[in-house]
Every structure is written in structure tokens, then in C-alpha cells.
Write a structure and sequence with these properties.
Oligomer: single chain
Structural class: alpha+beta
Shape: globular
Number of domains: 1
Distance between the termini: 29 Å
Radius of gyration: 17 Å
Strand content: 15-25%
Number of helices: 6
Largest sheet: 5 strands, antiparallel
């Protein structure tokens, strides 16, 4: 059993808390909150099993974190994922939401838009979908050359009864474009306005 302590805490979302893996600082362990139904926690896991055979060597870059399986912890069942870190500092990468709320971001809007378009293109090309597409679920990884990759860290999957998007490029494109539009990620102005509205409503989880 893996012993997780308060010092391992990183952050949390609506359904899970995130901790450093005590034995490997390149991994994190996500643990469901007590009030969240178990079935909800396994929706993403089922989707990871569904796409586990995709040939990631064909990706332009690894645009979603790798899932490494379950572990027993003192806090309950944990789900192990890659921990996204900046190559320049080895610090945990901040989310897109963090950067969009900064007064003086080190990156331009053009870089973020280029990253979002690249992420969208990869999702369409490789038919990998994100049900909970939010700026807080996307990490901005700073590479050695100071460029950035946008990496989905949570909310991956979909619940289509007839998964036409899994089979046909046309439907994959339509699905991803709809998701970006619904998430207000089609423009940075729309996303910043959404974040302000969420802040005003008291939503503080980033």
C-alpha cells in the first residue's frame, strides 16, 4: 500500500484530489473525493482502456497524459498518471486557466491560440475526445526552447451511444469543434470572459 501524506498534496478538481506519487515525482496519484460516486471516477478510466492501443508515435506530441493504472493507498484507490512538468525548471506546469488570468503572462495570445489549434488538430486526427474540456484541465508545458505544448490532464472521454466520431473523421472533426465552441475555447476573449463569470459566481477551483 502506498502511504500518501499531506505534504504530497498538489491540487484538486471537482471529483478528485491530486497528490505526488511518493515513490516517483514524475507521476501523480488522483483519488476520488468521498462524496463522488465510484462510477463517475471510472468513466475516464474506461475511456483510457478504450484508447490504450493508439500508436502515440504518430502523434505530433503527447497531447494527453498517460494513465498508468490503479494503486492501493491509505486514502483509498488511486489512479496513477504522468505529472506534467516544465522542461525549463522541472516545476509542475501551470494550467491554461492560470496563464489566462495572469496580468503579465510570459506567453502571447498568439502562442496560446496556436497551441489550442494544434491540440484541436491532434484530437481530430487521432480521434481522442475530451468530455470536460476546460482551461483548468489543460496544462501549458514549457519546453526547453521556451515554446509550449498544451496537454489535457483531466476530463478525457465521451459518452456517445453511437460513437460515430470514433470511426469517421468527419464526425470526429464536428465533435471536437462543437466541444471547443461549447467550452468557449474558440477564442481567448470568450474564455477569459467565461473565467471571470465563474470567478464572480464563486467558482474557485483552478
Amino acid at each position: 500500500m502506498i502511504e500518501i501524506k499531506d505534504k504530497h498534496y498538489i491540487s484538486e478538481g471537482l471529483a478528485r484530489k491530486v497528490y505526488y506519487h511518493p515513490d516517483n515525482n514524475n507521476l501523480c496519484i488522483k483519488i476520488g473525493k468521498p462524496e463522488v460516486e465510484v462510477n463517475h471516477l471510472y468513466k475516464e478510466i474506461k475511456y483510457y482502456h478504450k484508447i490504450k492501443n493508439k500508436d502515440t508515435s504518430k502523434f505530433d506530441y503527447s497531447f494527453y497524459v498517460t494513465y498508468h493504472g490503479e494503486v492501493d493507498t491509505n486514502l483509498g484507490t488511486g489512479f496513477v498518471y504522468d505529472l506534467v512538468k516544465d522542461e525549463t525548471t522541472q516545476n509542475i506546469s501551470l494550467t491554461l486557466r492560470h496563464y489566462l488570468e495572469m496580468d503579465n503572462s510570459p506567453f502571447s495570445d498568439e502562442q496560446f491560440l496556436e497551441g489550442l489549434n494544434r491540440l484541436k488538430s491532434q484530437m481530430i486526427q487521432h480521434k481522442v475526445f475530451v468530455g470536460d474540456l476546460r482551461a483548468r484541465n489543460i496544462c501549458v508545458k514549457i519546453l526547453k526552447d521556451k515554446s509550449i505544448d498544451l496537454i489535457v490532464i483531466d476530463g478525457i472521454g465521451h459518452r456517445d451511444f453511437f460513437p460515430l466520431a470514433d470511426w469517421f473523421q468527419y464526425f470526429a472533426k464536428k465533435k471536437v469543434e462543437r466541444r471547443f465552441l461549447k467550452a468557449n475555447l474558440h477564442s481567448l476573449e470568450a474564455q477569459r470572459n467565461l473565467i471571470k463569470q465563474m470567478r464572480a459566481a464563486g467558482e474557485t477551483i483552478v
